[in-house]
Design brief:
Shape of chain B: globular
Number of helices of chain B: 11
Strand order of the largest sheet of chain A: 1-2
Strand content of chain B: under 5%
Strand content of chain A: under 5%
Helix content of chain A: 55-70%
CATH architecture of the largest domain in chain A: Orthogonal Bundle
Radius of gyration of chain A: 27 Å
Number of domains of chain A: 2
Number of strands of chain B: 4
Structural class of chain B: mainly alpha
Order of helices and strands of chain A: HHEEHHHHHHHHHHHHEHHHHHEHHHH
Structural class of chain A: mainly alpha
Largest sheet of chain B: 2 strands, antiparallel
Largest interface: A-B, 61 and 66 residues
Order of helices and strands of chain B: HHHHEEEHHHHEHHH
Number of helices of chain A: 23
Shape of chain A: globular
Oligomer: heterodimer
Helix content of chain B: over 70%
Chain lengths: 531, 300
């Protein structure tokens, strides 16, 4: 039989031609997607009626950016990445990796010099070049700092990889001290340093650590036991409301209520876990989502107890183990007792160490539980429920202990959250929070504590860092607010990270039980969450 | 009795909208076994597209007959929303097909967050009210039926008829049903599975866009966050009817609509969403395969 080949097949399109075609399609699709939503804007006019205004310039910019981006990716990005995998014929070596070309010593030295110079001249810069270029220079300084840090990490990567846990914990313990020290040097006074450190310790340190703790708690349910829980925020809310209500009505101390809130959340974990024992996979996810929403709706509507959407305010602060207080008016206020200057920073730093301790407790308990029979039963359950049952493992208790343990840590985190904010309302416990926590667990590589911590740092720290990008106002105009784009970028980052690494940042698993030597198992050999 | 009939009519209207959204969930779940979390936000995008078209029509012409306005809104919203769902499937779900099970769920949640925030950023966070398009109300024997409600029920019935024809009588529908039963075998028999899945997403989005247009016409207001609750309720409807079953989705939608309107009429309006979610939990616990669904056979 004659094989006929259509004439088009013989002429292979050059990469540039193909890229042009792809760029055209991408541009056309983005024009279609954005013509109504970016090209037009609905807004109120003077009579409070909706009117549309046009933004064709912005639309054109977005469409052209999409097309150009697609062109560059197809024409240069893809061939470059393909070349990285091909060995050189003459030497038999792979081309130098992108990282080693990016982090070169001359560049490193240049960045260090630029960083030191810009820091030293910080205060006089605005006077020399004007406020606007000074803003850009500060951005440049931030880039230089990031580059220098990345270089240091890159050069010492083997050492860091070998001692990651110890280094990480040391860095976390020293973090507030370092922040205060650096800022004190910068402002030439300790009080100024303490004041400036509030933002860094609170917005970055405490905020990220709360999510690390929540994600590690959820990790027990999702990562270890393989039970997909989309309503984890319910336990967080229960812990927060337990502390808020008991502390405001009965004046009980945080140190009594912390275990109480954890126990209550664990009880609710069992109560909510019991009906869903038979469910698997997606159905389980949906029912837990429904439970999460029910608890939030009850918090909104049960106004006699929870004060509805207005929330509970005036929640007492945590005391220094009952010895000293952080309220300025109290006789045993920490600054009076120790004879130091008044500052709000002590409380934040104390809270930082508190949440750090709670996080480490979660990690410690998780690591220990994995070596106990119950932890092994969780992992067996994740891999195969039927095999698990036929080996005589009681799946009911296994599932319920997973729910209860996970919920307990959610409750701890919740009561900490209430004490830190001094205010709780149902607004803080929407489904989005559950989704964020689950996303951190999955993006980090389920079951891997280190990966989850890295994911929390990247995702939460990244969105928090957007608040700091004031220089963008100088580029896009004064009404440009980067905070607005936080969740948009968060959602897109979730998609991009998942596409890039479907197994999360740390895709391999270290087995808890092994015959002769411990070997990391690639994530692709493990199954997830069919139970 | 009149009060009851009144609630029945309200429930039917609400249920039609839920049913239209639920079909998108159930089709996607049937064919690739994933919960398309972004579907509720696709519905919201449809409602917003209809809103913008409505405003353009108002700005361009002095007066447009309501029927033509609705038709134009619906068609543009369907086209635009289909494009969104098609792109999302291509970018966020297709590369992860065959990857582990949680991966597409996470990208779907990510897309849901990204879509609602995209609309918030580009169109502003406020509620968007429009002047009432149709305000005729008929009163029959003490029961008031608005023209809006009649339009909703008629449009839904017409669309479902077209949709039923597409799925049951055309080769496209046959391909879809084949993919739903066994994707690998369908591919071996020469069905373009990728294309079939794309078309499934487009069809789901088109129905959601119609639901969005009807939602906008009925309530006269839409906001960027309006995708989540109807989305979850429509998913409840799909599960209640038996996920994967198309008549089940419509039946489930109607049931959820009735339950919600009865609950707010006879018990308390505050807890109407609690009722919907409790029903979801109860149905899944006691009747996991839904009313019209096939029980799942576990293969070892």
């Amino acid at each position: 039989m004659a094989v006929t080949v259509s004439p088009e097949r013989d002429t292979v399109a050059t990469p540039t031609q193909r890229a042009l075609k792809e760029a055209f399609y991408a541009g056309a699709i983005s024009l279609g997607l954005f013509v109504l939503f970016i090209g037009l804007k609905t807004g109120q006019n003077m009579r409070n009626e909706l009117v549309v205004t046009t933004r064709w310039g912005l639309l054109a910019a977005v469409v052209i950016a999409t097309a150009v981006g697609r062109f560059l990716y197809i024409a240069y990005g893809q061939p470059f990445m393909a070349n990285q995998k091909i060995t050189n014929v003459a030497t038999g070596l792979l081309p130098a990796s992108v990282a080693s070309r990016f982090f070169q010593l001359p560049w490193f030295i240049a960045a260090v010099v630029a960083m030191v110079l810009l820091f030293a001249l910080n205060n006089s810069l605005a006077g020399w070049v004007g406020a606007e270029p000074a803003g850009y220079l500060q951005f440049l300084r931030a880039l230089a700092v990031i580059y220098v840090l990345a270089c240091v990490i890159y050069y010492f990567r083997a050492f860091i990889h070998a001692n990651f846990t110890k280094l990480g914990i040391t860095a976390l313990v020293l973090y507030p001290i370092l922040v205060v020290a650096v800022l004190s040097l910068n402002a030439w006074s300790i009080a100024g340093g303490l004041q400036g450190s509030l933002k860094w310790v609170d917005n970055f340190g405490i905020q990220i650590l709360i999510y690390v703790m929540l994600a590690w708690g959820l990790n027990i349910v999702v990562g270890l036991a393989g039970l997909l829980d989309l309503g984890y925020v319910a336990f967080y809310a229960l812990g927060a409301y337990a502390y808020a209500l008991l502390a405001t009505h009965f004046g009980l101390s945080f140190w009594i209520l912390l275990p109480a809130a954890g126990a209550m959340a664990a009880l609710w974990g069992v109560l909510l876990g019991f009906p869903v024992l038979r469910l698997r996979g997606d159905y389980l996810a949906i029912v837990t989502l429904a439970f999460g929403e029910i608890i939030r709706l009850v918090l909104i509507n049960w106004r006699d107890v929870t004060n509805g959407s207005a929330g509970i305010s005036g929640i007492p602060k945590v005391s220094f183990f009952g010895l000293m207080s952080f309220n300025v008016s109290d006789p045993n206020y920490i600054a009076k007792v120790l004879g130091i200057a008044q500052s709000g920073a002590y409380y934040k730093i104390f809270l930082y160490y508190l949440i750090l301790a709670l996080c480490l407790l979660t990690a410690f308990v998780t690591i220990r539980l994995r070596r106990l029979p119950v932890g092994r039963a969780w992992e067996a359950l994740r891999e195969d429920e039927i095999a698990c049952r036929s080996l005589g493992i009681n799946t009911t208790t296994t599932k319920l202990t997973a729910f209860a343990t996970g919920a307990m840590f959610g409750g701890f985190a919740g009561s900490f959250f209430a004490a830190r904010q001094g205010f709780v309302s149902p607004e803080s416990f929407v489904f989005l929070e559950s989704a964020i926590i689950l996303a951190i667990v999955v993006l980090g590589g389920m079951g891997s504590l280190v990966g989850i911590a890295v994911a929390a740092m990247v995702m939460i720290g990244g969105t928090e860092a957007l608040r700091e990008l004031d220089f963008l106002k100088q580029i896009f105009g004064p009404d440009f607010t980067p905070e607005l784009y936080r969740m948009l970028l968060f959602g897109m980052a979730m998609v991009i990270v998942m596409l890039w690494k479907p197994r999360g940042f740390v895709g391999s698993r270290e087995p808890t039980a092994f015959l002769k030597e411990r070997r990391a198992v690639s994530g692709s050999f493990t199954k997830e969450g069919h139970g | 009795m009149q009060y009851f009939v009144q609630q029945l009519i309200n429930g039917l209207t609400l249920g039609s909208i839920y049913g239209l959204i639920a079909i998108g969930y159930t089709m996607v779940y049937g064919i690739i076994g994933m919960i398309n979390f972004a579907h509720g936000d696709i519905f919201m995008v449809g409602a917003f597209a209809a809103l913008i078209v409505f405003l353009i029509l108002g700005a361009l012409f002095y007066s447009v007959p309501v029927v033509i306005a609705l038709l134009v809104m619906m068609i543009v919203a369907m086209l635009l929303t289909s494009l969104y769902n098609w792109t999302i499937e291509k970018v966020a779900y297709r590369p992860l097909r065959g990857s582990f099970r949680l991966a597409p769920l996470i990208t779907a949640i990510g897309m849901s967050i990204a879509l609602s925030n995209f609309v918030q950023v580009t169109q502003g966070p406020r509620n968007k009210p429009i002047p009432p398009m149709v305000s005729t109300v008929y009163s029959i024997d003490g029961v008031s039926v608005s023209l809006k409600q009649i339009i909703i029920v008629i449009v839904t019935a017409l669309l479902l008829a077209v949709f039923w024809y597409l799925v049951n009588k055309t080769s496209l529908g046959r391909a879809q049903r084949a993919c739903e039963q066994d994707r690998k075998m369908a591919a071996l028999l020469g069905i373009d599975v990728d294309r079939t899945i794309s078309i499934t997403f487009i069809m789901g989005a088109a129905l959601a866009a119609v639901a969005g247009t009807l939602f906008l016409m009925y309530y006269g207001v839409v906001a960027f966050s309006d995708g989540f609750t109807p989305g979850v309720k429509a998913f409840t409807a799909a599960v209640l009817g038996g996920i994967g079953s198309l008549p089940g989705a419509v039946l489930g939608g109607l049931l959820i609509g009735f339950i919600e309107s009865m609950w707010s009429a006879y018990f308390s309006i505050d807890y109407k969403d609690v009722a919907a979610f409790s029903i979801l939990a109860i149905v899944l616990i006691f009747l996991p395969s839904g009313i019209l669904g096939r029980p799942e056979v576990e293969k070892v």
